[in-house]
């Protein structure tokens, strides 16, 4: 609330153009309104289908059920990540619209259809092992109203398959690269495109992989410019950030 | 080169609409042209002032001098990061246009003025200790044709200063958060905005900071969505990625 | 035993104000008495309800049962942390007063009511994931005779909820901040209050969280002064230290 | 600002008991006032001699000089940690009152005498190697108005020297234990007292000490209750936290 | 495709020695052909019995079944590593030729007999604990057409047993050393032979072994020249690399 | 075989004091005999009851059974560490003398009684949590013919209990200190005695204990001289080394 | 020495075909001769120009001078790695043939010309930063009598430059890939060739590179088969192993 | 002080066989006397030449000078480790007897000749790089009155040199093995002897050696029984422990 707005409000109160109670109410909410916390939420609500999010990892079935029940009262779309099939069955009991994306481990409830973007996000991965993280990223991005192109069969060890798909990768507005083991795919893709690349290290591998540390360090040290990184296995985070960029 | 283009080329050669030698030349370059490696470079060149980049870390003064001399022959702008004052003096000898950004440790040679974007990038940091990394990010982004807002006096330990600057931070199209020590600023900013946040951990700190590891892990685990991370002290990488996003 | 006391004792023995045997006995126990080991225990016993403590982690049900049975003979309050529900059932068999705090994983047996402090300890956390560690801290502090205010719904990613509770946090004599993931909450709270803050990193998170390492390093590097740290998931330790400070 | 205060303010504006401009001004500052950021600073200012603090690590002599010059305009006491002798000489040029504590690496400028507490803080260490960290803690605490007892000649390898000093250690309201190598002193002291212990690991040692990591982990895993930990070599942090507790 | 070949092709098209369509086809495939990706595969196919490989770790029984079914259509040999007995039973249902190497955890389907080399690979290990990794290496090498000598009873703690087998070890063309715990066997063997040694650290051990880290670091720091290292427990990788060298 | 012995052997062959075949045989075994590998084994066999050792960790019940059956044919004592109760039952079937030490997880078969030393080994630990490692050390030492004094109730957090037992600890020829958490007990004991101390870190603890790393580093950095360290949880190794020293 | 040889020797002694003293001497050296330690050295000596090797890291100029002086007496070639220019000057004083390879930090003294192999080793790297490690590998391999092809201008971020050199890389018998930062080049090259690849991680980089750890882990986890790894910056080791393979 | 002694003392005071003041004095010192702290020191003093020890690492020349001056007043031998040549020169000024062991970095002042043991300690190392740590161990052991055999030319990569020295190694009562790089020597020696082995990892090496971590982990995981470990580069600690064992 600018000084000008405060002056106008006070003048209105004095001139009784608005009631005393209306003045009190406007001023009472001022601290947070002014700091604009509401801006985010308002901004979010204006988008059709901007979903409520719940991370189910480490939660009990009961907790997930109760949280989703509460969310449903707000009539928004709902995105529940790291959800088990048991959680889905529980939710399906009281919510017909619930759909389960098994590979992504996502329960999704679409109550409003999002407005889809024209541009698309490419999700690139080497093979079938990282599929769960890929799908978490892809479904997240789609739920936020983005078109997604999945390119899952391209690895550094058989790089010609990657080149076959270069046009579709380069056509994207932002690219998510999911890779476990040594994570080299992020650097290779980063060197071939002129778009923001969000790299997701995965915990796929064994031994000196140290649960994804190898891929994480590899990606942070990428020799290709334009690569930023999220937490190990954090498909949701990549999908969310990519959505932000794609919808700019 | 599509099948259609190959058909047309062959037809022209057969009909002698183009000479035999022209046909040979077109086909000889075909592999890389087709894979589109040139696309990137062409794309880059079309932007006015897209700079040549040199990382001076671990290079000798002689190496830097020779590389920059060669780059000058191409008449592009030049951005030399992690450059010492001695390197700058050496370059200044043969290049009047060279400017040295001391805090950013950047030598910059602007031969063409970039077209500046309307939207801007915010570079946010807690204090004076991370200034070198901040300026590396900011100068990089500016050299790539972005407007930059520097907000350097906002730390988590005195959070009201951050709130004073919230409007300018929220007005940015993409936000770079630079933080050493525990890196909490990235999460706090990430929770207050609805824009992509690129977090840069710095090696500022001591003890259990482990040369930036504390801030790096902190940022990778950010509870705020929309935060991606680059390598420790990698101001250039953050500036480059932010530029990509800002110019989408 | 001061020199003066020794002089008086010897004089009494010489003057036969006390018997020879009483003199021998007093001197025989002198080493430990003088070093004052007993002081601690005496001091502890004088407080009403100062509990006996047992850490059940890695113990068998049989071991826990036998230890608690022995403790009951001393008629003190008993606090058993990291206890399973099975342990509780076993204890309940022979001790009607046993109560089980499920979220805290604490078995508590209150045989004497502690004198409660006027000042209170605030236990602050971001959400529901860290609840087990929070409750271990809170129940521990209460058992030691402290009033506790729980503020569990305040996270860095939605910082306005934290500000809503600032008055109650600032009113505490000492504050426990429990946080997993990146642990930024400790720095933010530490910057907003002028009271001792005890930070408890939790193992909540995944990937580059490395079982709480991220939050631990983050808290140790806090840019806010007045923050000290205990072991990952060590709610008991935080509750115990906070109690010491609150009762000073 | 409570709803009641807002009502009164609006009434006053309406009744012209305060001028229109006074009303605007009061409301303009309302957000931060209400959040109470000023509370901290006011609270701090009310204490006599509460010092301004500057961390000189990684700063240039010029930066330190300019910051201290600015601080002097506010007439507070000044505490500059990790300061070199060269910095001190520079400051001494324009500030006669500047004193240099060589072992603590602290420049201190006392413009007002703090009110000293009756209770005292004990700073306990094994020997001469950790002296720099000890003195940083001790001088910090003294500058904040605390009496400090230094007990520097007590190590675990010669534990009888520790017992000689037990009375003075137990007499403190809060105890700082500084230890490098394996950091066992924190556990031993923690087991002998019934007061809050703040443990400071130091980087003193070599090999598998890993720059203080051994002592840090050791202290975090202390088997003695009531021990909290600060960053490696963070004497200032320990002194600050101890001061907070001692002055409760 | 050399310039000369392009000239000849164009000439043939012009002279109609080949049809227009043949010219188009030859040029369409040119990019990849020229880069020679096919060379690898052609090269591989020419060897009798060069197997298809599948890493079963982290795959479901269904995934393994479908992949192997598809592979069988190509009539190559198949090597499935990290396969469980359940996977084997599933495969055995539709493929009579499937054999299960229990210790190696390998399913193998030999449809063509490889041409065996004259020279042999030695697989050296200390005892029975590393047997699974050893056999993965040995079976892999055999499937690729190498003779393998297994020397499994030779450890550093009883070094005379190693000397008894020196002749057979020295007779190999390349030596694989598998070792857990401290991995010293790689250095000892490396010092006794004048052949390439491929060291495989295993995760056998406990405590400060850190799941194979001790053996890995030990082998990377081997004081014996000629030792290269693969990932922890990566018997397949060692067998594959040794096969490459043995068949040079 | 010294030069002198060779001379004598050759002379005897020449003089036909021994047969030609005897000469060949003596020389054929010369390499290993001379290197003295047999010395160790001979030396070992001469001691009454020097046991055969088997580490059961990671072995199957079948493997343990077969190995022990084979060992029994040599009529030595047998010590099987990290053995489960199931393994014991299996062994008991065919070996009446087998005894199971449940806490130590040791199967022991005593076929000959060892000659016991006069001096004794002290095994010192803080409490009940490390009991399994303590007993592995103690039973191992006893099986090798050492007298062992167990002092299990002495921790750093209640140091007076340690002093009560000082005489018995100081009376030992060598002392094993077993400690988890921060491992401070090793330094405290090391400072109180003038005997070799073998420290065994255990994995007891949680969080920043990192499975025994904290105690391991602590012990390696012990400020007390005369402390050497074995692997985490390696009670057997400590018992074996202590036995070597005690029987010198 | 086989049984047959022993029989013959004894017979000769008996028949006095050789003197008694000759018999003693032959038998005295038997242990090592029989174990064949000499085999290695004999084998090595038979190759023309097989060099003596000295690692100068951490040695003083005096030590290097004395060692090389001693080596010169044996008239072999000499390869001194990690040598400073000062060391070279010292050596040049007494050895005219000494040559200094500045980038490789190698002093080389060629007294005999090695027989060069027909096949060659390819040394592949991304740029100029890793040049020192590359040259250490290349000069080492050349000194051992191998032809070497250097391909230093090919990085993952500009992958078309790598493809331009594919033929020369594929023509090698063994390939050394040197890479810092994220080390992705090893996987990319490994996927493009069917030859043994020896990967050398370098310490080039900063931040989360952790002095080469990122590249090391990346290479150990390479998704391309046929890649083995040596220690960080160990150009010598790679050159030595490659030489062994190339000369098989 | 036993109960009997207390009875006798009290009786004497009562009977005035000793004066009142003598009784007070005897009782005043009782606590520590009884705990027997003096026992250690008395025990130490009784040995001829038991030295005073000072660790010079991180101390200034002034501090070292003052400490040694004070020590000289007690007329004991003095052992100053990690001492620079400058420190030695300073000490030599006021102490003619000071001798400097350059490789060991030890200043030694022998005022009394120790009684030498009959048995000896073997110090075994691979080469010249670890010489400083070896000599620190050897000189320490000698100063404590032990005979020492140095065997410095035996490495795992040329294991026959080790066998040449086996007799002298096996003749020792206790063996110190010093090794950097991968530390395999400890396991090899441990497997060849039946005596206590104290392993000292050194920081010699580079890259994945991580300043001695590789050797440390290797030694802790030694497959040979009877090996205990001290801190990286801790030659003094090894020498001290070996002395304790040798003099039992």
TrEMBL record, chains A, B, C, D, E, F, G, H:
Domain PurE: 119-248
Pfam families: AIRC (PF00731)
InterPro entries referenced in this protein's UniProt entry, alphabetically: P2CMN_synthase_LarB, PurE_dom
The protein's name: Nickel pincer cofactor biosynthesis protein LarB
SMART domains: AIRC
Species name: Clostridium malenominatum
């Amino acid at each position: 609330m600018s000084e000008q707005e405060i002056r106008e409000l006070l003048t209105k109160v004095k001139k009784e153009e608005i009631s005393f109670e209306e003045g009190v109410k406007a001023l009472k909410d001022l601290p947070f309104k002014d700091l604009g916390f509401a801006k985010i939420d308002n901004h979010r609500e204006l988008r059709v289908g901007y979903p409520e999010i719940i991370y189910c990892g480490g939660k009990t079935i009961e907790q997930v059920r109760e949280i989703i029940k509460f969310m449903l009262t707000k009539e928004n779309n709902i995105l529940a990540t790291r959800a088990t099939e048991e959680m889905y069955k529980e939710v399906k009991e009281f919510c017909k619209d619930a759909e389960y994306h098994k590979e992504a481990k996502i329960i999704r409830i679409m109550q409003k259809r999002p407005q889809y973007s024209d541009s698309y996000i490419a999700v690139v991965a080497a093979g079938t092992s990282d599929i769960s993280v890929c799908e978490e990223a892809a479904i997240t991005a789609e739920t936020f109203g983005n078109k997604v192109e999945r390119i899952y069969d391209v690895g550094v060890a058989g790089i010609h398959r990657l080149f076959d798909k270069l046009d579709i990768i380069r056509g994207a507005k932002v690219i998510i690269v999911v890779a476990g083991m040594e994570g080299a795919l992020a650097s290779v893709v980063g060197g071939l495109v002129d778009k923001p690349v969000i790299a997701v290290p995965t915990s796929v591998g064994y031994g000196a992989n140290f649960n994804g540390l190898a891929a994480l360090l590899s990606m942070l040290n990428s020799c290709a410019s334009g690569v930023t990184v999220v937490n190990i296995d954090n498909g949701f985070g990549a999908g969310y950030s990519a959505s932000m960029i794609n919808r700019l």
